[in-house]
From TrEMBL:
Primary localization: membrane
Taxonomic lineage from the root: Bacteria, Bacillati, Bacillota, Bacilli, Lactobacillales
Record-given protein name: DHA2 family efflux MFS transporter permease subunit
Sample GO molecular function, one term: transmembrane transporter activity
Keywords per UniProt: Cell membrane, Membrane, Transmembrane, Transmembrane helix, Transport
This protein's GO CC annotations: plasma membrane
Family: Belongs to the major facilitator superfamily. EmrB family.
Family annotation (Gene3D superfamilies): MFS general substrate transporter like domains, Multidrug resistance protein D
Domain of life: Bacteria
Matches recorded under InterPro entries: EmrB-like, MFS, MFS_dom, MFS_trans_sf
Subcellular location: Cell membrane
All residue ranges annotated as the Major facilitator superfamily (MFS) profile domain in the record: 15-464
Membrane topology note: Multi-pass membrane protein
Length: 465
């Protein structure tokens, strides 16, 4: 089906949209909890430290299961595992909505993470099997929709639901979406043959749960309690040691859980490096811009959310245009303008003031959105397209797992940098100290964009496996 001559939009489009709906179902539950958490805390009479496990447990469960996605898809067929993941994720959502204690809610959140964690890597892997190479830029842009919609719609939807109903509705909303996704899977996803001879990498399977989740948890503790905290240092140190052992094992086995040998492919390494750089900028912007608007400008969370909506719209526009440019002219033609727009946007943010006009702020936000759209899926496609198709099911879990780690480190690093900059601004008023610190942090993000621009110059026009 991945031959251009066999390309049939009427068959491929519903399949890609089905995968996107499944991914949106899972990604929404990552972003929807930030607004809901205080209401859950109040309902179960828990402190913030205990309540945060509702988010942490979900993240760690996903990090635990993602490395197994490739093996599960190969052994039992991608379509079957994708469908079962959606079924059990939906059931776990129903049980979470009916939880009667914080402990039971955390258990069902772990169940959500363990089932939902395989959806994105298997979904992206299926899309590469469905979409011919010459159409991947424009069609894969649809899979970027969940990444755009989840951060924008999630907080707004959860805010509406908890205001007019109660916290349990943020889980109940998953039920119709899950049922719809399952129907679409059965109707539109092609059958992929299962490889009954596929064997699991036992050493890797034993090590991965002690590598990625422990490392990510250590970063979370460090972000929350400071990097001198003994628990943070212990978990980060243990996580790094286990990760090194995992890498050594995976490079020596014939059928690894994660295809780490992909890093010997120059275009994959360059593409994945650009993904990491862009992800730092994306998560940094998602963290900094709303914080600036609320803490410095003094906007409400509702108005901040409304101002951020054009970013998602611009990202979708950039993704659509970028996909077509990618198909016709190659990666650099889309990514270089994308990083250029990102540099202009962050330059504007580094000069922004509470007195800046709404038009100035929206201009910076829209340019940032266009930049993300032009860069994000294009560098992802470039990296994955350089990998032989036979290895794609073991590479998509690798890229997803590394994104979990990079996102955790990005938030921790930028939060620490912003806090440090605020403390350094002695002799200034609190407002001016905050403003200067935000400007310096935006300059730091601009540095990542410049590095990304330079690295893009070394990409081949189109990556080939």
């Amino acid at each position: 089906m991945n031959n251009t001559n066999d390309f049939n939009l009427k068959k491929v489009l519903p399949a890609v949209l089905t995968i996107a709906i499944g991914m949106l179902l899972v990604m929404m539950d990552t972003t929807i909890m930030n607004v809901t958490l205080p209401h859950i805390q109040s309902a179960f009479h828990q402190n913030l430290s205990n309540s945060q496990w509702v988010i942490t447990a979900y993240t760690l469960a996903m990090a635990t299961v993602i490395p197994f996605a490739g093996f599960l898809g190969d052994r039992f067929s991608d379509k079957k595992v994708f469908a079962l993941a959606i079924i059990f994720f939906t059931i776990a959502s129903f049980l979470a909505a009916n939880a009667h204690s914080m402990q039971s809610l955390i258990i069902w959140r772990i169940a959500q993470g363990l089932t939902g964690g395989v959806v994105a890597p298997i979904g992206i892997g299926m899309s590469f099997k469905i979409i011919p190479m010459e159409k991947r830029g424009s069609m894969m842009g649809l899979l970027g929709l969940p990444m755009l919609l989840a951060p924008t719609i999630g907080p707004a939807l959860s805010g509406f639901l908890v205001k007019h109903f109660n916290w349990s509705t943020v889980f109940l909303i998953n039920l119709p979406v899950g049922v719809l996704a399952l129907i679409f899977v059965l109707l539109f996803l092609p059958n992929f043959p299962a490889n009954k001879a596929s064997k699991i990498d036992l050493k890797g399977a034993l090590l991965s749960p002690f590598a990625f989740p422990i490392l990510i948890y250590g970063v979370h503790v460090g972000t929350d309690k400071g990097w001198s905290n003994p628990t943070a240092l212990s978990f980060v140190g243990l996580g790094i040691i286990m990760l090194l052992l995992f890498i050594i094992v995976e490079l020596r086995v014939e059928n690894p859980l994660l295809h780490l040998r992909a890093f010997v492919i120059p275009e994959f390494t360059k593409g994945i490096s650009l993904m990491w750089l862009n992800q730092i900028v994306v998560f940094g912007a998602m963290l900094l811009v709303p914080l600036y608007l609320q803490n410095v400008v003094g906007l409400s969370s509702k108005n901040t959310g409304l101002i951020m909506v054009p970013q998602a719209i611009a990202s979708f526009l950039g993704m659509t245009i970028g996909g077509r440019i990618f198909d016709k002219f190659g990666t650099k033609a889309a990514v270089l303008p994308g990083f250029t727009l990102g540099a202009i946007s962050l330059s504007l943010f580094s000069q922004i003031k509470p007195s800046s006009s709404l038009a100035f702020t929206l201009c910076a936000i829209i340019l940032l959105g266009l930049s993300q759209g032009l860069v994000n899926m294009q560098v992802n496609n470039h990296a994955l397209q350089s990998v032989p198709m036979k290895n794609i099911s073991r590479v998509t879990p690798l890229t997803n797992e590394m994104m979990q780690v990079v996102n955790s480190f990005a938030i921790a690093f930028l939060t620490a940098f912003l806090s440090g900059q605020i403390k350094k601004q002695t002799g200034l008023s609190p407002l001016q100290a905050n403003l200067t610190a935000f400007h310096h942090t935006f300059w730091l993000l601009l540095l990542f964009v410049i590095v990304g621009f330079i690295l893009t110059l070394f990409l081949r026009k189109k990556a080939k496996a």
